[in-house]
Design goal:
Layout: H1 2-9, E1 13-15, H2 26-36, E2 40-42, H3 48-53, E3 60-65, H4 76-86, E4 95-103, H5 111-130, E5 138-144, E6 148-150, E7 158-159, H6 164-177, E8 181-184, H7 187-193, H8 200-203, E9 211-212, E10 219-220, H9 223-237, E11 245-250, H10 265-280, E12 295-298, E13 332-334, E14 337-339
Parallel strand pairs: 1-2, 1-12, 2-3, 3-4, 4-5, 5-8, 8-11, 11-12
Antiparallel strand pairs: 6-7, 9-10, 13-14
Helix pairs in contact: 4-5, 5-6
Length: 346
């Protein structure tokens, strides 16, 4: 039934990044994810090995077009070619429900890339329409929270003035195609930036007194929900109160450099464990209590080749050998390696 599909599709999603040289084969990853009952996976490309390995598994995929390919997608025939090559051959055996065009495009300073984004998305959507796939495959893009000029309190959420000219046409596209607005939201960054000012319990979904938004009078007991409501407020402020917000990435690193406060396995276990409980409760935010958060955790594996601070290589729930980095009650089996243990007592 549709209701069951909706309930299932609101399970936790996971980001499956592959910037590493030691990851298990996609067919083994398919077994691991099946054993975890994870039904939603987000890729950063359209890796044919992954899409083939997951044929017939009922796992729903988000595939990605990297920032380096956005400009080419402004050519309609290249966009059609991309969909014919990277999406069409795998359907319906592999469920592909969404294509992200670019990632955090508005966080850099490449204005050419920013200007190309919506035309590229329109061309990908047109290609899907041409192939009769636009009813089953959505087109969107993911943003970091830096697209907001203000996010606290949530009622003051607003888009950066220098981006509104780019964001308005994007939101028109979302409204026309009924696709969600994707946000990569990391309370960890706020904590790392000012560990003295930000309450660790508040960012980790632990019991705390919370904060009350002075304008909306809504009470927030965790930062993630406050960040999402700031996005909803920003959308409403430029005339799009009805768009759906989806969390395309959130997570917590289990290890970091000496100056990366809070990057520990204990905190990562608490953040992701509490997040999973909230997802299971199908909880909405204070501003949108009836819209359960659709969330993709970052990430499946630690990725040893990612550039940047140590934390960047340590967001995984699993080591490449299939053993869990910490215990959040996920029983997983990676063929060739067994990593299975009882759920924690609640």
């Amino acid at each position: 039934t549709l209701l069951r599909q909706q309930a299932e599709s609101l399970g936790v999603g996971i980001n499956y990044g592959q910037i590493a040289n030691n990851l298990p084969s996609p067919s083994r990853v398919a077994v691991l994810l099946r054993s975890l009952d994870v039904r939603k996976v987000k890729l950063y490309d359209a890796d044919p090995n992954v899409l083939r390995a997951f044929a017939g598994t009922n796992v729903e995929f988000v595939v990605g077009i990297g920032n380096e390919n956005v400009a080419r997608m402004t050519n309609p025939s290249l966009a059609l070619n991309w969909v014919q090559l990277n999406v069409h051959p795998y359907l319906p055996a592999t469920l592909i429900s969404c294509i992200t065009v670019g990632n955090e495009v508005f966080s850099g300073n490449d204005t050419t890339l920013m200007a190309n984004l919506v035309p590229a998305m329109q061309n990908i959507h047109s290609a899907l329409t041409t192939l009769g796939l636009s009813d089953q495959v959505m087109v969107t893009t993911a943003h970091s929270l830096t697209v907001l000029s203000n996010s606290y309190p949530p009622s003051s959420g607003a888009f950066r003035q220098d981006l509104v000219g780019y964001i308005q046409p994007l939101l028109n596209f979302h409204a026309q195609t009924q696709s969600p607005f994707l946000i990569n939201a990391y309370p960890y960054f706020a904590y790392k930036g000012s560990p003295d000012q930000v309450s660790l319990d508040y960012v980790l979904f632990q019991p705390n007194q919370g904060t009350v938004d002075p304008v909306s009078n809504l009470r927030y007991d965790n930062m993630l929900y406050a960040q999402i409501d700031a996005v909803y407020t920003a959308l409403a402020a430029i005339g799009r109160p009805d768009l759906l917000v989806r969390i395309s990435e959130t997570g917590w690193p289990s290890k970091g450099d000496p100056d990366e406060a809070g990057a520990t396995p204990e905190n990562a276990e608490i953040y992701n464990g509490n997040l999973l409980k909230r997802i299971e409760m199908k909880q909405g935010t204070p501003l949108k209590p009836n819209i359960p958060l659709d969330t993709y955790v970052f990430a499946l594996f630690n990725e040893d080749l990612k550039p940047g601070p140590t934390s960047e290589r340590n967001y995984g729930l699993f080591h490449p050998d299939g053993t869990p980095v910490y215990n959040i009650g996920l029983n997983g089996v990676l063929p060739g390696y067994i990593s299975s243990y009882g759920r924690k007592c609640q």
